[in-house]
Each structure stands twice: as C-alpha cells, then as structure tokens.
Amino acid sequence: MDALGIAVVVAVLVVATTIGLWRRRTDGMIRDEAAAKKRRATILAAAGLEVVEVPDRQSPAASAATAAKAASGAAAAAVHGATHGRATATPVPDAREEPGVVSPDAGAGGEQLDQGLLGRLGVGPSPVTLLQFSSAFCAPCRAVRRISTEVADLLPGVQHVEVDAESHLDEVRELNIWRTPTLLILDADGHVVKRATGVPSKPQLIAALGGLLG
C-alpha cells in the first residue's frame, strides 16, 4: 500500500473514532427539557411566532388504548345526549339507506317553533313544510331530498326545505336532531307534528301528510 492509501485509511479511522467518542458522550445524557422549551419559547416569541407543542409518539398499544378511550367517550356522550333529549355536537350521517320511520314527534314535543328559528332555517309560510336536515357525504340524504321534492311537487300546499345541519348547530340542538337525514313535518302554525328518520317511501310520506291537508 502506498503512502496515499495509508493516509486515507488513517483519516477514516480518525473520523470514525471521533464520531464514536462524541456519541458516547451524548447518548444517555439527561437534558433539562423544561429549560430547552423555555429557550425555544423565548426565541419563537422574539420572532413573533406561536409555540406549538407536538405530543410524544406513542407506542402502538398506547395509541390503540387512547383511540379506544376516545371512542368510548364519544359513544357515552352520544348516549347521554339521546337519553337526556339533547343532540350531540354534530349530527351523525347515516352510512346507508335504511327504511324510513315516520312517527309523532317526541323531540320538540309538538310545540310551536319560534318564527325567528324558522326564519334562520329558511322556512316560509306554507300549509305543510317538509323540513329536512342533511349533511355532506350523506347518501341517504339525497334519497330523502328526491322523495320529498317529488311529494312537494305532487301535493299542493307542501313545501320542501333542506338545511345543512352542520351550519345550524344551535337549531339542531334545539330540535334534538342527532342523525341525518332527519325530516320534520310542520303544520301551517309551525308545530312539529311528525318526524321521519331513515328514508321513508313516497306512499309512506304522503300518508303521513294526509291529516294535514284539508
């Protein structure tokens, strides 16, 4: 081996040894994280930036436990809301079309809705109103929209009003809407007479309106 080759080998060994010694000094070192965070916060504040803390990476088991706990809490909140006559924060869209159920309304108690509330939902005067609450990416909502529109076109005195539930959360909570699609049937005075969940058929919906159209 010539002199140049020997020099290269020596240089590589020196660099490797230096890196090894540096790693031995830094590995296992206990750093003052609070002091480090304080220094970072001071630097970011001086630059006019906001401090955003990123949670430590969890192990797969810990992540699964956290997700399960969150899901359990959400389910408990939903059950509590339904039991106590209050809607959850955001109505849950139905994933598939289910047979519709039309029944006398228990959510609003058949009370007369405030005209201000009706105005915020875009409900105008009409002998009968089909008030539909929908949400994005809700396939059954499209089916209810089609059926309600056909019924409104078929029967004089019936109007169909569709509302984006996520844009009217205050009204959703007041009316106890906890899933989409939900269809409220209002009389001329603004009383919630019946409530339909799922996808009612056209004959089923027409029969539900029979007593409201004189």
What does this structure look like?
This protein is an alpha/beta fold and 214 residues long. The protein has a domain at 92-209: Glutaredoxin (3-Layer(aba) Sandwich), CATH 3.40.30. 46% of the residues lie in helices and 15% in strands. It is built from seven helices and seven strands, in the order H-H-H-E-E-H-E-H-E-H-E-E-E-H. The strands form two sheets. A five-stranded mixed β-sheet has the order 2-7-6-3-4, with helices on one face. It has a two-stranded parallel sheet with strand order 1-5. Strand 3 (128-134), helix 5 (139-154) and strand 4 form a beta-alpha-beta unit. The longest helix is centred in the N-terminal third of the chain and has 24 residues, at 3-26. The chain starts with a helix and ends in a 5-residue tail after the last helix.
Topology diagram in text:
Blueprint: H1 3-26, H2 33-46, H3 60-83, E1 92-93, E2 101-104, H4 115-120, E3 128-134, H5 139-154, E4 158-164, H6 169-174, E5 179-180, E6 182-186, E7 192-197, H7 202-209
Parallel strand pairs: 1-5, 3-4
Antiparallel strand pairs: 2-7, 3-6, 6-7
Summarize, please.
This protein has 214 residues and is α/β, with parallel strands linked by helices.
Mean pLDDT: 73
Contiguous low-pLDDT stretches (5 residues minimum) are: 26-34, 47-60, 65-88
Secondary-structure element string: HHHEEHEHEHEEEH
Annotation field: number of helices: 7
What characterizes the major β-sheet?
A: 5 strands, mixed
Main sheet strand line-up: 2-7-6-3-4
The H-level CATH homologous superfamily of the domain at 92-209, spelled out, is Glutaredoxin
Query: How much helix is in the residues?
Result: 40-55%
What's the end-to-end separation, in Å?
A: 110 Å
CATH first level of the domain at 92-209: which class? Alpha Beta
- Structural class of the helix and strand makeup? alpha/beta
